Amino acid sequence: MNDFQETADRVEIEALRGEFTDAAMMRDRARLAGLFTPDGVLRMPNVPVELVGREEIRSGGERLQSQWDFFVQNSHPGVIRIDGDTATGRTYMQEIARLLDGRSGQNFAIYHDTYRRTPEGWKFAERVYEVRYADTTPLPGSAPGPDTRAHDSGGTGDADRAHDSDRAHGSGRADRAGDIGRADRAGDSGRAPGAGEAGAPVTRGADDFARPASAERLDRAVAALRANGFTAELLDDAAAARARVRDLIPEGASVFTGASETLRLSGIAEDIEAGDRCLAVRPRVLTMDRATEADEIRRLAATPDVFVASVAAVTETGSLVIASATGSQLPASAGGAAKAIWVVGAQKVVPDLSSALRRVEEHALPLETARALAAYGQPSAVGRLLVLNAEPQPGRGTVLLLREAIGF
């Protein structure tokens, strides 16, 4: 290859890398996918995520970008080594972002690239993303303009998402994001003690936080919850819970759904948010402007007629443990909602409060962090914990405990 051809190839590859950043910033997912060969691969081993082919890369980018309030990516040229019709190289990245759930921060990372010459020009055959530094300190700035979105709350996912993590109100439109805030998903904080590589959950001793509790333990939990003032029902599966939730919500009621894997997987969230039997709070909050309507967003999330969510753990002594990244979902659970309904998988039943807290840190949080890294490029955290030891208002709080596992 002559020097002129190599120089031209280097210029084209550098333009390819620059267009990737431009397509990401402009949220042009189809264009971004078109920068790869038809069998191209985008890998994020730290998460882990692997998207193979243009369609997976396009749809994966869509899932990611739907969670952004704002995102800024700066790329810095690295080495390029050309070998005929293939080449390798590195691109150095600095990124700052805020998600619709309120989380924000910055990353420094490297893309390890393989390029291939095609009839359409140079394309990515593979991009491998390696994070070298992550800082989840909240960003003090915001995306300017009337479209800035307010972040609503998340729970821990289920404590549902360990981010169930509530979405923070300070960032833009409220969105569905982390529940662990949800203790179902665990998330804003990186790996919890006891988490394995890439946030994989680690069991300790005889504990298995993913295994459904036995019938005897479920019965003990239900009896204890009832003794503590909760309405507790033991149901066979998520389908039964989905039908029961419909029965429990009065027609026309305002209903706030906590961000939760349990609600998503069961179809309960979709029933409420896409149906017309009730006034769904979350879709409304997503359209509101956080700069001018922050107080209204806060009131809507804190005091609905009905709050539907999950929890991170239920103890056999009759307590509910809810984890959240920002706490925006907690007021409704604590007493702000006129009625609360918690849908809980059988794997969340633990003997006591100390086991519940370990379940949040060692099981739910790592799972939510893995989910959050894949979806948003950032880990999750347990910023707030709420323990409900009793329900003083008869009939206000209903726990639908399932015989099967669901959520985190």
Secondary-structure map:
Elements: H1 3-25, H2 29-34, E1 36-44, E2 49-52, H3 54-65, E3 68-83, E4 86-99, E5 104-118, E6 121-135, E7 157-164, E8 179-183, H4 215-227, E9 231-235, H5 238-248, E10 254-257, H6 261-266, H7 268-274, E11 279-280, H8 281-286, H9 290-302, E12 306-309, E13 313-315, E14 320-324, H10 330-336, E15 339-344, E16 349-350, H11 353-376, E17 384-388, E18 397-402
Parallel strand pairs: 1-6, 9-18, 10-11, 10-12, 12-15, 13-16, 15-18
Antiparallel strand pairs: 1-2, 3-4, 4-5, 5-6, 7-8, 13-14, 14-17
Structural commentary:
The protein is elongated, with a radius of gyration of 23 Å. Helix content is 31%, strand content 31%. The relative contact order is 0.17. The strands form 4 sheets. It has a 6-stranded mixed beta sheet. A 6-stranded parallel beta sheet has the order 9-18-15-12-10-11, with helices on both faces. By secondary structure, the chain is of the alpha/beta class. A hairpin with a 2-residue loop joins strand 5 and strand 6. About 15% of the residues have low confidence.
